Amino acid sequence: MSEPSIRTEKRTLAVDDGTELGIHVARPAGTPRGGLLVLQEIFGVNTHIRDVTERFAREGYLAVAPDLFHRGGAWFESGYADLAPCLARANALTQPQIRADLRASHAYLAADLGADAKVAAVGFCMGGRQAFVANGTLPLACAISYYGAGLPGLADLAPSQSGPVLMFWGGLDKHIDAAQRRAAADLLIAAHKPYVDVTFGAADHGFHCDARASYHPVAARQAWALTRAFLADHLG
Q1: Which residue in 67, 101, 173, 204 is the catalytic one?
Q2: 202 φ, ψ to 5°?
Q3: Which residue in the list 24, 70, 106, 125 is annotated as catalytic?
Q4: Annotation says 125 is catalytic
Q5: CA-CA distance, 27 to 48, in Å (whole number)?
Q6: Is the pTM of this model over 0.85?
Q7: Which of 35, 73, 154, 230 is surrounded by the fewest CB atoms within 10 Å?
């Protein structure tokens, strides 16, 4: 059976801090089931992030990947072995800038789908953290964080999580150890927020990305199945 056709394009949005934000848009065939913010790793809105965005469109969602590094030059991408320019971009970002970009992206989806449409966020590493930020600052139906870095530092946003949270971790991840994973869950427990917490013991950081050496096909396949189910439950 052939995959449903989708349409992709790049668009530019006005942000309320006076900048212009690029988004990679993947539009499904037919009426969308809902909207998705797909939030990048530090390597930019690269081939992998665009591919994931398009995979979500094939599932029936209107998916957009905002270029969160646009203030340092539009559409930055870097190889997985060249961390220095990525870290420089990430470290230059501020929370007000990120939240402004999230608002603009969410407003685009709401305008396209209608004010009553359900929207969710899914992100990877840096983007996994920003999915938690989006869910804590926007009216989302749910959020999905793949190996989200620094979630324990977002304690102030735990009480305002608007939808259930699904968190994926790699048990071999040296960047996010068991104590940090537990601390992220504890935030949601203390705030009485619904969540699902999944650790793949044999997987490392970045296990979902098939372009990285840390790709773990079994964990990636199982995480994708859970992601689909979670979105179907909360977005439709």
Answers
A1: 173
A2: -95, 5
A3: 125
A4: yes
A5: 17
A6: yes
A7: 73
